[in-house]
Every structure is written in C-alpha cells, then in structure tokens.
Amino acid sequence: MRQINFVIGFVIIFGLVLFSLENPTMVMIRVVPGSLELQLPLCIAMIGAMGFGALLVWVLSVWGEIQSRFSKTFDRRKIKEQEKQIESLQEDLGKYRLDLDKKKQLEKMQDDLERYRTIVEEKRLLSSADDKA
Questions:
Q1: How many CB atoms lie within 10 A of CB 61?
Q2: How many percent of the chain have pLDDT more than 90?
Q3: Is the dihedral of CA 75, 77, 80, 85 positive or negative?
Q4: HSE on the CB side for 103, CA within 13 Å?
Q5: Whose CA is closest to 46, among 24, 70, 68, 75?
Q6: Mean pLDDT score across all residues of the chain
C-alpha cells in the first residue's frame, strides 16, 4: 500500500512540476475587487486553488466522520435500550408460560374432579337402586 501511495504522490507532484514549467505567465488575481489584488504566476494560482479545494474536501470529510460517530453512538445507546427491553419481555414471557402451564394443570384437575364426581354419583345411584331392589 505504501508503494501505491508513493507512486500516486510522485505522479501528482511530477504533474504539478510540469504544469508549473509550462505556465509561468503572471496573472492578476482580484480577491476583493478594488482593494486586494495579487499578481502571481498562473501555475501558483492554479496550485493554490487546487490546494484550497482539497482543504475544503478534507474539512467536509472530517465533518462527515464526526456526524457518523455521533450517529453510531446514538445507535449503540438505542441497541442497549432495545436489548434491555428484550430481556424484560423474555422474563414476562417466561412468567406467562408458567401461568399458562398452571392454568392447564388447573383445567385438567377440574376435568378430573368432574369425572370423579360423575363416578361417585353413578355409584351412589347404583347402590341406591340395589337397596330398593
């Protein structure tokens, strides 16, 4: 990777040197019309403009990175809150399952009790019928 960076940097600097040699003409740059004027070689003005543009791109990328970090921090907080909520809901689910199991056992016991009462009633009816006969 370092070799690639070196080659890219070398090509850019070589291009800037060739650009500077080909454009030595002096130009007038008016920063503020009427009060601030600069006379520079065209190559220096162009390289300065490129440098200023590169600086603006770098500042914007840093700003984007800062926003991304804030967003990630917010997302992490939100994930932690959701994990806590999931744990709470899982505990509630466990309680509800226990309650449901207890309810099923109670219903089974009620069915068994009803069958027992039916059997006892049938035996009582049979024994009373035998007593009458």
A1: 10
A2: 49
A3: negative
A4: 6
A5: 24
A6: 88
End-to-end CA separation in angstroms for the chain:
110
For 85-100, the pLDDT digits (tens) are 999 999 999 999 999 9
Q: Are 29 and 52 in contact (CB under 8 A)?
A: no
How many CB atoms are located within 10 Å of the residue 76 CB?
A: 10
How many whole angstroms separate alpha carbon 74 and alpha carbon 67? 11
Dihedral angle computed from the Cα positions of residues 73, 76, 78 and 80, in that order, rounded to the nearest 10 degrees: -140
DSSP string, 65-76: HHHHHHHHHHHH
Task: Say if CB 29 and CB 40 are below 8 A apart.
Answer: yes
Extract the runs of DSSP E, i.e. beta strands, from the chain.
Answer: 26-32, 36-41
